[in-house]
Amino acid sequence: MGAMSIWHWAIVIVIALLLFGGRGKLSSLMGDAAKGVKAFKDGLKDEDTNRPADDRAGALPRTDAEKEDLKS
Q: What's the rounded Cα separation, in Å, for the pair 33 and 44?
């Protein structure tokens, strides 16, 4: 009752085979995720370089009046 039964072990083995079985499915999945993160960071970097330096250095407006000042 306290130990794991054969069914528990079978489920653990099936999950392990799904995660680690085959031609490195988990590693290819993690590689794809890393590529996505890198592309996201590159996209943010490109967006910042298109704006003037003084816009990037300023603080975000906290009030509606500050937002209106930035628009004009």
A: 17
Q: Which of 4, 10, 31, 29 is nearest to 19 (CA)?
A: 29
Q: What is the residue whose two structure tokens read 């039964």?
A: 5
Please report where in the chains the tokens 């999950």 appear, as a residue: 15
SS3 67: helix
> Taking phi first (over 0 means left), then psi (-120 to 50 degrees means alpha), and beta for anything else, what does residue 22 get?
left
Rounded Cα–Cα distance for residues 15 and 8 (Å): 11
13-38 tens-digit pLDDT: 888 877 777 666 667 777 888 899 99
In the 8-state DSSP scheme, what is residue 23?
A: T
